[in-house]
């Protein structure tokens, strides 16, 4: 899509179709919000957790230009959800959302404190997410650059996760961390399982399935 100067505008788990058990055929759906890049569009209020901050700040009736960097942000959130089973925050608003505020400060190097749900990610994946989920729209990397990170390890094992005082002091007390409510986590987990994504299995197997899905998505050249 991006090679054709088209923006999907609604990348989320519900719009990713895994068409075979081996996860080699992956297709996108939900094109009702797709626009030509630069075309004026309106805010989609149904998937707030996937929205970048520049759109979150818009009023429902306020128009903005469609840009592929908005898909990059949504794809980064989708990767987080696939590997973690929950959203990193309910909305990317640093003034009112503590989880996003903590991420924003980490991204700006003002603090190293992150919710413990981020500690399971490898340094390579954190580097990729930092580029995809960049608060500044102009500095986000393209989705095609995800291919460069496929060969690296994306998650840490239980023994690799070091729950230092930094993470304990930031509220890291459990497996799933403090991001999102238990209700939203349960709903997202149910949706992922209906799409064939393992959320209760071994963490390493979840990583392998996600990498296969990302690789298949890249090979389709939809974005």
Automatic annotation (TrEMBL):
Q: Which Pfam families does the entry mention? A: Pkinase
Entry's InterPro entries?
A: Kinase-like_dom_sf, Prot_kinase_dom, Tyr_kinase_AS
Q: Which UniProt keywords apply?
A: Kinase, Transferase
The answer on whether this UniProt entry bears the keyword Glycosyltransferase reads: no
Q: What is this protein called?
A: Putative serine/threonine-protein kinase SBK1-like isoform X2
- According to the record, the signal peptide region is none
Residue ranges of domain Protein kinase in the record: 1-152
- Molecular function terms, GO-annotated: ATP binding; protein serine/threonine kinase activity
Record the organism. Stichopus japonicus (Sea cucumber)
Q: Do you know which PROSITE patterns this protein is assigned to?
A: PROTEIN_KINASE_DOM, PROTEIN_KINASE_TYR
What's the domain of life for this entry? Eukaryota
């Amino acid at each position: 899509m991006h090679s054709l100067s088209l923006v999907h505008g609604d990348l989320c788990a519900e719009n990713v179709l895994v068409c075979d058990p081996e996860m080699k055929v992956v297709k996108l759906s939900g094109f009702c919000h797709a626009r030509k890049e630069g075309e004026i569009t309106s805010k989609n209020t149904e998937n707030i957790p996937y929205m970048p901050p520049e759109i979150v700040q818009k009023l429902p009736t306020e128009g903005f230009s469609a840009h592929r960097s908005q898909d990059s942000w949504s794809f980064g959130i989708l990767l987080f959800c696939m590997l973690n089973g929950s959203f990193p925050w309910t909305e990317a608003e640093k003034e009112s959302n503590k989880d996003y505020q903590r991420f924003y400060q980490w991204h700006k190097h003002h603090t190293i404190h992150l919710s413990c749900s981020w500690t399971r990610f490898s340094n390579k994946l954190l580097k990729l997410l930092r580029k995809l989920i960049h608060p500044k729209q102009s500095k986000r990397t393209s989705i095609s650059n995800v291919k460069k990170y496929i060969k690296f390890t994306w998650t840490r094992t239980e023994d690799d996760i070091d729950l230092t005082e930094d993470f304990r002091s930031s509220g890291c007390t459990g497996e799933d961390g403090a991001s999102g409510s238990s209700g939203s986590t349960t709903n997202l987990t149910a949706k992922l399982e209906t799409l064939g994504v393992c959320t209760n299995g071994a963490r390493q197997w979840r990583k392998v399935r996600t990498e296969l899905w990302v690789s298949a998505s890249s090979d389709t050249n939809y974005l």
